[in-house]
Structures are given as structure tokens and as C-alpha cells.
Amino acid sequence: MKKIYSILSLLCAAFVFASCAADKENAEEVGYLKLEMNTLVSTHTRVTSKPDDYDAKKMHVEIRNSAGVVVLETEDVANDANFKQNIVLVPGTYTIVAHSAGWDGSDSAMGAPYYAGMTTVNITAKVLKTASLTCTQANVKVTVNWDQSFRDNFKKAQVVVTSSLDGVALRNFVMGSTVGSAYFPVAPLNLMVSVENNNGGKFYQENTIEDVNPRDHFIINYKVAEGGKMGGVTVFVDDATNTYTYNVEVPRKSSTALQANNANAWGNFAQLAGMVTAKTSDFDPTCVSMQWKLQSDANWTTIDNSLLTKNGDNFSYKLTNLSPSTAYQYRLNYKKGDIEVNSNEVKFTTDPMTAVTNGGFENWWKDGSVWYPNAQGGVHFWDSSNPGSASMGESYNVTTRTTDAHSGSYAARLGSTYVIIKFAAASLYTGSFDHLVGTKGAVLNWGQPFTARPTALKGWMKYTPGSINRGTQPSGIGAPVKGANDQCQVYCALLDGAVQIDNTQIEATFPKWDGSDSRVIAYGQLTKDTEDSDWAQFNIPLTYYSATRKPTHVLILCSSSKFGDYFYGSDSSVLLLDDFEFEYGTEPIIQ
After folding, report:
1. Is 60 exceeded by the pLDDT of residue 206?
2. Cα-flanking dihedrals φ and ψ of residue 510, to 5°?
3. CATH architecture of 140-251
């Protein structure tokens, strides 16, 4: 039986200041409400191990006016004096919201049902109105039972129940010790049972419950399957009580157990790995294979044992030619004679394979005196040093479009310039210009949202370096001497979060690209001081400092004068850029 709280004859009331209420009552401009509450609780839900300070019988109630303003509320409606007497409300429409106090039901918990309900009432002057509100269970109950035959055949067993929602705590039911039921928010559930039989053989089995609704009660009965075959699942449904009984059979005699690990999925390939966790004396490692499929498919594709990489009881394989942003799953399989064992099934989704926004630099627009390398009204993906330099006048836009393009109508032109009193290196980067710091420099926001993992950045460039004639040579960073050729630079970084740079405090705010900075997941760069007679293609491989971390932002930064942050370079250096694109290979460089 479900637990249902019934707030019968809930007569709503709003809070008004005493003097104001008295005046309105005398003017016969208010209505009256009274609250009566009756709570019905099934004994089936009286279990222990609730969250701290949580009491299922304790109900939070709010009365909100038509503007959504809470005019009266309580954390314990049954014991609040304000709800036990007539309360005065200004005429209008009110919403009554009630839910379990002390817990919001968005996480899982043992023995913690969550109840919620809502209704509305129209208040008229000089009339007593009655509203009836029923609060029903809003989360899902899970109970795990172990059949006696199961207890007899397995010396250890536990099942981990997890929600498909992020941030929901898992619940672990251990045979012989866990008492009570767990409650989860409404979402598909995954059941992973691990057992050890009396002979020491270990086995894992996974089941998923997809169709989940509020007030459902899932009773999971673990039983022993006949023989050594994979067990089945039968489901009995009681629609009257929303109860679903799952009888899950687990094989008893198989002592071979496999486990698939989490897949490391990139855009077009995935690294799969698994292991043999238990085996019989006649175990044959050549009988181990891997199987994979689209999550939406019914049939599995088998990867033969001869194609797997083996290291003792560990097996791995690089699965290629996958589609980006696509859901797959895989498992290990052991088949010898009439014995067949599958591991748990691991679901994974490949990364997106995102293109460089406006990578051909065809889109430009001018806002006031400043040119931007983006479509007007579109995504502001790129920015430049123009918001700083062009504050001195439109002629000082140092990054502009040019018809000298590799393809299409336009390319980006970065021309370092002396702006009245300061040298301005032309730049182009993903992010946004924040503000100037007087005449000393600027604050920049580096990075745009990005979750893909390319292996390289490639494009086309044409560089004409000038002789360095501006600024003072900075020491200790490899800057060339005055009179030498200026240097251009193009680099790409995948980041964990955006980065703000104050180039008046470069040492304090500038990332370290060598892998020692936790914000940097991957990096690659190109530096050049020679002239291109025509368009030249470049390819910048990215070095990853982790094989598994995924970025949240991408930074592409280009400059016609590498040391422009130090106001050092040539005011005649020009860098043309066009046709940027990401390369998604299957052999990333991992350091």
C-alpha cells in the first residue's frame, strides 16, 4: 500500500499585518479561512534510517497570492497556531503548496518517502472558503529481498542501486545487513548485483528499470537460476498499488566472472577495457571476446579474441569508426562449450566533434568604431585587441578582414601597429575583451564553451614579419633582440573553465601550458619568424595531459607579435589567417 498524506479540508489563509487586517475587516473587504488537517500514514512505510531531523509526518505548507508571494507559511502545519484559527485573506486567488518538511526529495535516502501536493482557492469578501489538498508520494521506493535459496548458495551478495540523474547518491543493499527501503527521485534506475558463491566464484549482473513514475514501489527479489546459465527476470505488476515485483535470477554454478570498465569515449573512437575477476581451473582466455552495439540496437557485434590486447586477466580494445555524440554500450563475453557468461554492460556516449565557429573568417561586423570577427547578432565566439586599440579611433582596428583570402571572400588580417603612445600587437582569440587597465594593458576573458576533444588544429596562414622596433626587450622569456625578425604565434588549449588574463600582471594570471596547471587539459602551439611568399598550411597537434579529462572551454589565440603582451615587437608585422578547422584523429598525443 502506498503512503498517502491527505490534508482534508485545508482552509487557506494569508498573512496580513494586524492593524491592516483589522481595518479591512471593519470595511468588510476580507474573506475567512480555516485549516483542518488529517494525516493518514501506512504502517508499511514506518522504517528506520531516515535523514537527520526528517519526519514524514511533518508537513511544510505555503500560501501564495496570485503574484507568487508567500503570505503565510509553516514548517509544521499540524502544530502551528496560525493554521488552527480563522485567518484573514484579501480577496483573490491563492495557491496552497504542501510538501514534506526537512528534505526536498531530490536525492536518495533510506526510509525517506517524500510527499507533495498543490491546490488553488478563490477568496471572496465575507465568505469562508474550504480547499481540499491531498499530498501523495512524489518519489520512488526500492526494496531488495534475498530468497532463501539465494542465501544458501551465496556467501556474499550486494546490490548497488543508482539513479540515472546526476548527483543522486547510490544505495547499497548488503545481504544479511541492510534493512529497509530506499527512496529515489523519479528517473530510470540501474541495479548492479555482485555475488560470491560458496566455492569462491564471483559474478556480476546488471539490470535496468526504465519506466519509473512517482509512487512506484519496486520490490527486487534475487533468486538462484537453475543450472549455470544466465538467469532471467520476471516482473509482476499490481496496478492498484503501483507495485512492481522483479524476480531476478542469478546463476549459481558459474565461477567465471567478467567485469567491463568505464569506456573512455572520444569523438570517433573509444578505449574499451575489462577484466576476468574469477575463473575456474579450466578457464581458457582465448574464449574471451568483447561485444558492442548502439544502445538503440538489439543485436551485439562481437570483437574476436584475436583482436583484443591482453595483459594477464585484463583485456582492452580501441573501437574506431564511431559516430560523434552517439550512445553505445559494450560488455565482455566468455563462451566455452555450453557455458556462456557476460559481464556487466557499460553505456557510453561519444564526444561531439565540434567545428571551429566562423573558422573561415567570413563573418564580420562593426559596432561603433570596433570591428568584430563574428556575425552580427550571432555567437560572439572570437574577439581581438580592437576594443582596446580602436578606442583611439576607427583607424586603429589592428585585426580586420581582408579580401586576400585562402578561400571564400575574406580572411583575418592581424597587423601590429603603434597606437599614438603604445605598441599594439594585433591578436585574435576565442573569448572576449573585458576592459582596459589605463594605458598599461587590458583584462581579457579567454575561452569559449567547448566539450569536444580534437587531436589537432589546422588552417592556413601568410606571415610577413617586420624587424622589431618597438618596446624594450623583456628578459628571461626568450624574446629576440631588437632588430631581429618579429615572431607570430598561434596556439590552442583545451581548458577546464574559462581563464581571465590581466596582462599587467602576466605572471600571476597567465596559465602554464606544460601540464603543471590543472586548468590546462591539452595544448599545442606554433611560433614563426620567417616570411611566407604565399598561403601556407599549418597543423598544430594537441598534447593531452590526461587521457580521460574532458574540457569545458577552448582557447585559440593568434598574434602577429608573440611578445605583444610586453608591448614589444614590430609595427610592420602582418599575419593573415584563414580556414581554421579541428582534426579528429584516433591517435591523440598523451603525455
Report:
1. yes
2. -80, 135
3. Sandwich (2.60)
